[in-house]
Design a protein that fits this description.
With 312 residues, the protein is α/β, with parallel strands linked by helices. The protein has two domains: 218 residues, TIM Barrel (Alpha-Beta Barrel), CATH 3.20.20.70; 78 residues, no CATH class. It is built from 14 helices and ten strands. Strands 1-8-7-6-5-4-3-2 form an eight-stranded parallel beta sheet. Strand 5, helix 6 and strand 6 form a beta-alpha-beta unit. Helix 6 packs across helix 7. The protein is globular.
Length: 312
């Protein structure tokens, strides 16, 4: 037991990332049933769709789970009202936690905020969050513009805050989990590994494609908007070409229109869709699409092997 397992009431300090178009009720409940903390990704759901997924998740697991909410969400008030009616764990990201943290905590919700720097970690602590996720440059989702790697970010955030600390970005193995612990993290949040499981709501084409990626096949782009790590395809080529000639935020938003992420991740359009995935995908090269239970077993066994090896 540590502060993360105690905070959420879970067996293993492993949190599944709340990823758009991947993190529906099947994935979240599977992770929670396997001893981790599953998260629903509200960023790709209309309010009533989120409520439906929350209720299906309650039916599929008796263990704790939560909801990840990007604070830039256009219907944020409706989402927050649904969340306080249905769950008691919220991870916030992509915005300032100052506005909503107190409101959520007054209603009995445990609040965790995702940060990309020690400065933002201190602001999250000032806002009153219960824990922080420090996400390094290697991650696939909304990264920091500073491009700080997880190896550098963890000790910096650990030194800056006394809050329970969760490491994210580039973590896909038990060995990486142990490394995060050595750097001061008390838990890990894993996105890429869970995005490519059988229970993920991502399209099979997307999963199979990402399991064939090698080193250097992803790149962090769209820094003028919200930085994400993209796989090479026609859409990424268009983004790189636009950024090379100094495209404005509005011009980049036009490129992102037409539901690019849904088209790529959920519908499996591997050329015109926005394909977000972390650098850790290269560590999974050649793997089959596994179940969440298989991934959790590999993670926990890998952690134990690494720990035992250090003691020899």
């Amino acid at each position: 037991m540590n502060r993360i397992t105690s905070l959420f009431g879970i067996r293993y300090p492993i949190i599944q990332g709340g990823m758009v178009w991947c993190s529906g009720w099947r994935l979240a409940s599977a992770v929670s049933n396997a001893g981790g903390l599953g998260l629903l990704g509200a960023g790709s759901m209309h309010p009533e769709t989120l409520r439906e997924h929350i209720r299906k998740c309650h039916a599929a697991t008796h263990n704790p789970f939560g909801v990840n909410i990007p604070l830039m969400y256009p219907q944020i008030e409706e989402i927050m009202q649904i969340v306080v009616e249905e769950v008691n764990i919220v991870f916030t990201s992509a915005g300032s936690p100052a506005k909503w943290t107190g409101w959520l905590k007054e209603r009995g919700v445990t609040v965790v905020h995702v940060v990309s720097s020690s400065r933002f970690a201190m602001k999250a602590e000032e806002a009153g969050v219960d824990a922080v996720v420090a996400e390094g440059f290697e991650a696939g989702g909304h990264n920091g513009r500073e491009e700080t790697t997880t190896l550098c970010l963890m000790p910096a955030v650990r030194a800056a805050t006394t809050l329970p600390l969760i490491a994210a970005g580039g973590i896909a193995t038990g060995e990486a989990m142990l490394a995060a612990r050595v750097l001061g993290a008390e838990g890990v949040q894993i996105g890429t590994r869970f995005a490519l499981t059988q229970e993920s709501s991502a399209h099979e084409y997307f999963k199979e494609y990402c399991l064939r990626l090698q080193e250097g096949d992803t790149r962090l782009l769209l820094k003028k908007l919200a930085p994400v790590r993209l796989v090479r395809n026609n859409f990424r080529d268009a983004v790189e070409a636009a950024e090379a000639v100094g495209a404005t935020q509005d011009e980049l938003r036009i490129l992102l229109a037409h539901g690019r992420a849904k088209k790529g991740i959920f519908y499996g359009d591997l050329e015109e869709g926005e394909l977000e995935i972390g650098q850790a995908s290269a560590l999974l090269y050649g793997k089959q699409i596994e179940t969440v239970a298989e991934v959790m077993q590999e993670l926990t066994e890998g952690y134990r092997r690494a720990w035992d090896a250090l003691k020899e």
